[in-house]
Design brief:
heterodimer, A: 52 residues, 2 helices, B: 146 residues, alpha+beta, five-stranded antiparallel β-sheet, 33% helix
């Protein structure tokens, strides 16, 4: 992953982390976040059972 | 504001101010509660995957993007040194603090030292690549390894 992609990920993931309402993204939100960066495969699916 | 949120903010505010994740005693003082009550909040925050705790349940190993122990990923923001858990979290510290910073790390393949300036709009252009070894579904099986 390039640094510009990683920055987008960092901002999405942690941009509100110091605010009261912040929380970790849910599984479906994680899939959407990764998909926006072009990461669609099972490796980036937090609920994938491919890697048991 | 709920108790767990107050505890979470106490952890993150203290870490942002000092660069170091506070002890449970310091957090308890900050939220005017006992360490037992804070430990219970820690367990709930761990269940929400907002904290990673040491085995004692009272020491914070990770309050992502911040690390509770020194790591190879140092980030300097506003003259304060922070430790990040990984390269993702190294950028996450500037993102969380909404301040520019400098990442000091290394390439895991060549061990070459790496320094990267991060502006409010993102890192300077570079040829660095982030490599994630563990699939997302397994990250929290062993987050330190991940």
């Amino acid at each position: 992953m390039r640094m510009d992609q990683l920055w987008q990920l960092a901002v999405t993931w942690y941009g509100a982390r110091l605010e009261p309402v912040s929380r970790r993204p849910a599984a479906n939100e994680m899939r959407e976040i990764f998909a926006r960066l072009g990461l669609h495969d099972a490796f980036w699916d937090p609920q994938a059972d491919t890697f048991q | 504001m709920g108790f767990d949120t107050a505890v979470k903010l106490a952890i993150y505010t203290s870490t942002a101010d000092s660069g170091r994740i506070p002890s449970i005693k310091a957090v308890a003082q900050r939220v005017h509660a006992s360490t037992d009550e804070v430990a219970q909040a820690y367990a709930r925050l761990r269940a929400s995957r907002l904290l990673l705790l040491e085995r004692d349940g009272t020491t914070i190993r990770m309050a992502p993007p911040f690390s509770g122990v020194p790591t190879q990923h140092r980030v300097v923001v506003g003259g304060i040194e922070y430790f990040a858990n990984c390269a993702w979290d190294a950028l996450g510290i500037s993102a969380a603090l909404h301040r520019p910073g400098t990442v000091h790390s290394r390439c895991e393949q060549s061990h070459e030292p790496l320094d990267l300036s991060v502006a409010l709009t993102g890192p300077e252009p570079s040829t660095w690549l982030f490599h994630c070894l563990v699939p997302a579904a397994k990250w929290w099986d062993d987050l330190v390894f991940t």
